[in-house]
Write a structure and sequence with these properties.
The complex is a heterodimer of chains A (530) and B (328). With 530 residues, chain A is of the alpha+beta class. Helices cover 36% and strands 23% of the residues of chain A. In chain A, the strands form four sheets. In chain A, strands 12, 13, 14, 15, 16, 17 and 20 form a seven-stranded antiparallel sheet that branches. In chain A, strands 3, 4, 5, 6, 7 and 8 form a six-stranded mixed sheet that branches. In chain A, strands 1-11-10-2-9 form a five-stranded mixed sheet, with helices on one face. In chain A, helix 6 runs antiparallel to helix 9. With 328 residues, chain B is an alpha/beta fold. Chain B has two domains: 190 residues, Ribonuclease Z/Hydroxyacylglutathione hydrolase-like (Metallo-beta-lactamase, Chain A, 4-Layer Sandwich); 127 residues, Rossmann fold. Chain B has a seven-stranded mixed sheet with strand order 7-8-9-10-11-18-19, covered by helices on one side. In chain B, strands 1-2-3-4-5-6 form a six-stranded mixed sheet. The relative contact order of chain B is 0.14. Classes of the chains: A alpha+beta (530), B alpha/beta (328). Chains A and B meet through helix 1, helix 2, helix 5 and helix 6 of A and helix 5 and helix 7 of B.
């Protein structure tokens, strides 16, 4: 546990991808089986325990500490797991259990005994180990390690080809003893021919400002705003993998059960709106990051996949074929699929570059992010290969709004007022229209924080109401009608574009400006708001 | 003893302790800028603290500077004043005041653990103990400093191509980190930001050996790959640090105990090394001085007052303005 806790702690502070890789590589080379395998699957969020809940940890700490001191400490630290870990009395110079022992014990400990087990461990651990244990049992790692990053670290640590590692990975279970045995030359390469594994995703480059492509060499498609996935079937085994290599099958049984094509396809995971179209991303969000999903959730937010590509059909690997031929094969495959859960991404037929540019500007509905442009002759190659696929996102909308409330942020912003609620004018009054907590630089954040502290007129817990005097230029991807909001509008992906210290609040936008934007884009009111 | 707009004032002695505004007579506990303010008329402190004030403030250190050695007593007005080691930084002192048969101890900033660069804290029993409270929350329990130094050395092994840029407060923390590295067997030259030079030379002159030091300011950045470079925290975000090859930013401070605080400051390698007492040291000290009354100054007063009250001690918060706990 000592090594894992140290790794987790180092990862929290490591901003760079290369640094994260170096830390994980070092861990994998130093720590023996089975601990390193468990550590790896804990990092990627594939390890979960059902017996321990955050509330249980809190109860344990409250038994040991003064309630007033606990309150003051939590108020200061702002994070429950960390407060508990730091406050737990005792020096923790006992011998902490190893990670493998912790995993085994938790897997065979019942709900009624788990509190006692945790208490015993916490007494033997130092603060970093306690923090790591709490993160582990409550399942909130959040150290910025995707499955893809973990696999990359693994392949680098043992000098193996990433694509090969990726293919083996999902066919094997933690703690991955066969995989380690193979890379360390102690065993043959595991045979996964009959396992449902994903292939490395092919990714697009953003189109550079002013860059033009020849429309005759490219296929154009809408870029849908969902989650890019691969659907894999091998015999009876079926899986959905996200672009980061995470297996998200458990959250999407509706899609998985309908997928009976023997092969691998690539597409966008979306939620169907009541009118048959695509629901906004926030509907899909309700379905993400779940270990299980209720029938009610599936009925309310029915998932489907809009297919872009085909990689494997039966025994046949199609990835080397040019895109237009794969497209043909995809159309044939889709014809046999459940139309409720699967459809095919439309091919647009612009005659000229001007027409493409115009289409991109029209991509105003909430469900579209812009355009995809893919070379007709491109093979399906893992990674971001130059010159083959391009994404061209649309320009954001903007408005000038007035800062109304500010709330302290989380994580590294816990001492900054970094979440801003802003409003637009209606009949001489400000009505809140949205909330944003990014888009600004660290220097601007410090400025905004200072402004908020200096212009507070009322406090409500972590929220401050400020003088209605600061204009913010906000950018957002779209705006739609919403009955849940007093103003009647809701923005998607709002962010602070500029702080307008120069502009008087009276000159900020009126609410009608937002309704006008909705009008121009067509009504896009969705189920959730009805 | 009372507080006024300048801070803590001893009426029968006619002097302030660590005043925040210019006063006639000041006793200064140690040389940090928020305790040793410029331009007081008469200043009493340990010889080392006065030297530090001269180095940092020049003529603004004060009109008359009077040294008082640890353990010696001086009568000022109707009060007997004695300075006792506080274990915070070189020259740091607690102020022991005796008047009319009762004793008040003003702790200044202090810590209880061993520090190879200064004299250790001495417990003086008293009737009223006026304590600092920088880390007065039970979440602050500084780990052994050897563990933190190991963290830095392990990182140097793992990232040998990166300059390890460690943010340290110039007085005390800087020299302590160097001394701890030397105790851990690290004998390579340690690079210093120019602003740290004077005080390191002063410590060496006072007999604190720091080993080979190099001044980073005039050098080619590449030379510092895989080396330890110490700089004041403010320099970490400045243009100065851009010369370093892919710097790995560390910070040696008690605040590093709270992850969110460390992340907020964009620290990659937090080192929990503090010159202030942690929660256990504070509560241990309050017990050992056996004072019936506790006054709590700068920091998180509320928690310490609560703790003391739970144990039947009279305790109150003084809420003195002007002390910068962020600088630690």
């Amino acid at each position: 546990m000592r090594a894992f806790a140290r790794l987790l702690d180092d990862l929290v502070f490591m901003p760079s991808r290369n640094g994260k890789l170096a830390l994980i590589e070092d861990y994998l080379k130093r720590v023996p089986d089975p601990h390193r395998g468990w550590g790896l699957s804990a990092l990627t969020g594939d390890l979960s325990f059902h017996a321990a809940k955050p509330a249980m940890i809190r109860t344990l700490v409250e038994e040991r500490t003064d309630p007033e001191l606990f309150r003051l400490s939590y108020d200061y630290v702002g994070d429950m797991a960390e407060t508990c870990a730091l406050m737990w009395p005792g020096d923790g110079h006992g011998e902490a259990p190893r990670l493998g022992e912790i995993v085994d014990t938790l897997n065979r400990t019942g709900r009624s005994e788990v509190a006692g087990v945790l208490r015993g461990w916490l007494d033997r651990m130092n603060a970093t180990e306690r923090w790591a244990l709490i993160k582990l049992v409550t399942g909130g790692m959040r150290v910025g390690v995707s499955a893809r990053l973990a696999k990359t670290a693994f392949s680098r640590a043992f000098d193996r080809d990433l694509d090969t590692v990726e293919e083996l990975w999902h066919a094997l279970d933690p703690p991955f003893a066969e995989l380690f045995a193979w890379v360390e030359g102690r065993a043959e390469k595991p045979d996964v021919a009959n396992a449902p594994v994903m292939r490395p995703f092919m990714l697009a480059h953003p189109l550079e400002e002013g860059e033009e492509l020849d429309p005759s060499e490219f296929l154009a498609e809408w870029k849908w705003d969902g989650v890019r996935v691969q659907l894999v079937r091998r015999g009876a085994e079926r899986r959905v993998y996200s672009r980061t290599g995470d297996d998200i099958s458990a959250a999407f049984p509706d899609v998985i059960e309908a997928y009976d094509f023997d092969g691998i396809v690539d597409g966008e995971l979306l939620v169907r709106a009541a009118d048959g179209g695509v629901a906004p991303f926030n509907h899909l969000q309700q379905r993400l990051n779940r270990k299980t999903v209720s029938a009610k959730m599936m009925a309310r937010y029915p998932a489907f996949v809009r297919l872009y590509d085909i990689l494997v059909a039966g025994e046949e690997d199609l990835r080397e074929l040019p895109l237009i031929e794969r497209r043909q094969r995809l159309e044939e495959a889709v014809a046999g699929m459940d139309p409720i859960r699967f459809d095919i991404s439309e091919i647009l037929t612009p005659a000229s570059w001007e027409e493409i540019a115009e289409m991109r500007q029209r991509a105003r509905e909430a469900e579209l992010e812009g355009l995809m442009l893919k070379r007709r002759d491109s093979a399906y190659q893992g990674g971001r290969v130059k010159g083959l696929w391009f994404k061209w996102k649309r320009d954001p909308l903007t408005a000038d709004v007035v800062l109304m409330y500010a709330q302290r942020g989380h994580g590294k912003r816990s001492s900054f007022y970094s979440d801003y609620t802003f409003g637009a004018w209606r009949d001489g009054e400000l009505v809140p229209v949205g909330k944003a907590y990014f888009g600004f630089t660290d220097a601007e954040l410090a400025e905004l924080d200072r402004w908020v502290r200096g212009h507070t007129i009322q406090r409500f817990g972590p929220v401050r109401e400020v003088e209605k005097a600061l204009v913010l230029e906000v950018a957002f991807d779209s705006v739609h009608r919403s009955k849940r909001h007093k103003s009647g509008v809701a923005m998607r992906f709002p962010r602070i574009k500029r702080i307008r210290f120069d502009k008087p609040a009276k000159e900020a936008d009126h609410l009608e400006a937002f309704f006008k934007m909705i009008g121009e884009a067509g009504e896009s009111e969705s189920v959730a708001e009805k | 003893m009372r507080t006024d707009e300048s801070g803590l004032y001893c009426e029968p002695g006619g002097f302030h302790i660590d005043p925040q505004r210019v006063v006639e007579r000041a006793i200064v506990t140690h040389g940090h800028g928020d305790h040793a303010r410029p331009n007081n008329r008469k200043v009493l402190a340990t010889e080392a603290t006065l030297d530090i004030m001269r180095l940092r403030l020049g003529v603004a250190a004060g009109d008359t500077l009077q040294p008082l050695a640890y353990g010696e007593t001086l009568r000022i007005g109707e009060v007997d004043v004695c300075l006792v080691p506080a274990g915070h930084v070189l020259g740091s002192a607690q102020v022991v005041l005796e008047y009319g048969g009762s004793r008040i101890v003003v702790s200044g900033d202090y810590k209880r653990r061993r520090d190879p660069t200064c004299a250790g804290f001495e417990v003086v029993t008293c009737d009223v103990f006026i304590t600092e409270a920088t880390f007065a929350l039970p979440v602050f329990r500084h780990p052994p400093d050897t563990e933190e130094i190991d963290k830095l050395l392990a990182s140097l092994d793992l990232f040998p191509e990166r300059a390890h840029l460690v943010g340290v407060y110039g007085l005390g923390k800087c020299q302590r980190v160097i001394a701890l590295l030397r105790e851990a067997g690290y004998d390579r030259p340690i690079y210093l930001h120019g602003a740290l030079q004077t005080l390191c030379e002063f410590y060496e002159a006072q007999g604190v050996a720091l080993g080979p030091l190099r001044y980073a300011t005039a050098r080619d950045g590449k030379e510092m790959a895989g080396e330890i470079v110490l700089a004041p925290p403010s320099a970490l975000k400045e243009v100065w640090s851009r010369r370093m090859p892919n710097p790995r930013t560390a910070m040696a401070s008690g605040w590093m105990r709270v992850r969110q605080r460390a992340r907020q400051r964009l620290v990659e390698l937090p080192l929990i090394i503090s010159d202030h007492a942690d929660w256990d040291e504070l509560t241990q000290t309050l017990t050992e001085v056996e004072a019936g009354e506790i006054w709590v100054t700068h920091g998180r007063e509320e928690a310490l007052v609560h703790w003391a009250a739970q144990r039947g001690l009279k305790a109150r918060a003084l809420s003195l303005a002007g002390f910068e706990d962020e600088a630690e």
